[in-house]
From TrEMBL:
<keyword id="KW-0275">Fatty acid biosynthesis</keyword>
<feature type="domain" description="Fatty acid desaturase">
    <location>
        <begin position="41"/>
        <end position="260"/>
    </location>
</feature>
<comment type="similarity">
    <text>Belongs to the fatty acid desaturase type 2 family.</text>
</comment>
<protein>
    <submittedName>
        <fullName>Acyl-CoA desaturase</fullName>
    </submittedName>
</protein>
<keyword id="KW-0560">Oxidoreductase</keyword>
<dbReference type="InterPro" id="IPR015876">
    <property type="entry name" value="Acyl-CoA_DS"/>
</dbReference>
<feature type="transmembrane region" description="Helical">
    <location>
        <begin position="79"/>
        <end position="100"/>
    </location>
</feature>
<keyword id="KW-0443">Lipid metabolism</keyword>
<feature type="transmembrane region" description="Helical">
    <location>
        <begin position="46"/>
        <end position="67"/>
    </location>
</feature>
<keyword id="KW-0444">Lipid biosynthesis</keyword>
<dbReference type="GO" id="GO:0016717">
    <property type="term" value="F:oxidoreductase activity, acting on paired donors, with oxidation of a pair of donors resulting in the reduction of molecular oxygen to two molecules of water"/>
</dbReference>
<dbReference type="InterPro" id="IPR005804">
    <property type="entry name" value="FA_desaturase_dom"/>
</dbReference>
<keyword id="KW-0408">Iron</keyword>
<keyword id="KW-0812">Transmembrane</keyword>
<feature type="transmembrane region" description="Helical">
    <location>
        <begin position="20"/>
        <end position="40"/>
    </location>
</feature>
<keyword id="KW-0472">Membrane</keyword>
<keyword id="KW-1133">Transmembrane helix</keyword>
Length: 280
């Protein structure tokens, strides 16, 4: 596997060490997802699509990203915890890990050493390669808590960050009881792989191609098809220009499904202090 990191790594003081445990985990989930054609049913496909939306839009986009990372809006604490729990089920890491990594990304956007998924290291590095190397500054709790101190002081988030992986057990058992192995293959493994790559496209493709609505000190782009796959996150140039704004799609045709959820929460009184785009 080559991730175009040799030239970028020449300035590093420490060589990058491949993490075979991490690679094996992701490879195993991908392999199990390939069993999907032999376990196909329309109901299983429906479960995969529903959980892709639930874990992706509600858990990751709304919870991990817009609420926890950027505090673009505020919801009641119990609802915040529930949404974060949904995010942990997405199998993209615990909240402290995820939030710290994304805050680093905004603080040091595209810096080869300080941005965990810097696009300057190449497409495959920013897409998924960064997950396969031992970099304690990005993966160890003591380092991450410095970038997410608001979460690290909360016992619930510390526990969720430590045990998020175990949540896949009750999820898998529940899926099996509802629909057998087809629901497990589609709802757990295939869904995880599809959601991984959807999310990762924001780190990779949205820093390479698309259009720019704002001048920003990076190569972030608005990419319509990535926005569809990620429920609005693909309007990435808008987001990098104004990270704390809760609305990712600014123009009427920039579809942002997660924003629709925020509007619904506001209408029933569960969302407040929503950060809106600046008026011109």
């Amino acid at each position: 596997m080559i991730f175009n990191i040799v030239e970028a790594n020449q300035k590093n003081e420490r060589p990058l060490i491949f993490n075979w445990i991490s690679f094996s985990f992701f490879a195993a989930v991908h392999i199990l997802a390939l069993l999907a054609p032999w376990f196909f049913s329309w109901s299983a496909l429906g479960v995969a699509l529903f959980l892709h939306w639930l874990f992706g839009s509600i858990g990751i986009c709304l919870g991990y990203h817009r609420i926890l990372t950027h505090r673009s809006l505020h919801v009641p604490k119990k609802l915040e915890y529930a949404i974060a729990l949904v995010g942990a089920l997405a199998l993209q890491g615990g909240p402290i890990f995820w939030v710290a990594g994304h805050r680093r990304h905004h603080t040091y956007t595209e810096d080869i050493d300080k941005d965990p998924y810097s696009a300057k290291r190449g497409f495959w590095w920013s897409h998924m390669g960064w997950l396969f190397y031992k970099r304690p500054e990005f993966f160890e709790y003591e380092s991450n808590r410095k970038f997410a101190p608001d979460l690290a002081k909360d016992a619930f988030y510390r526990s969720l960050d430590r045990y998020y992986l175990l949540l896949q057990i009750p999820l898998g058992v529940g899926l099996y009881l509802m629909g057998g192995w087809s629901f497990v293959i589609y709802g757990l493994f295939l869904r995880a792989v599809l959601l991984w790559h959807s999310t990762w496209l924001i780190n990779s493709a949205s820093h390479i191609t698309g259009y720019r609505s704002h001048e920003s000190d990076d190569n972030s782009r608005n990419l319509w098809w990535a926005a569809i796959l990620t429920y609005g996150e693909g309007w990435h140039n808008n987001h990098h220009a104004y990270p704390n704004v809760a609305k990712a799609g600014w123009k009427w045709w920039e579809i942002d499904m997660t924003w629709w959820v925020i509007v619904s929460l506001r209408q029933i009184g569960l969302a407040r202090r929503i950060v809106l785009p600046p008026t011109t």
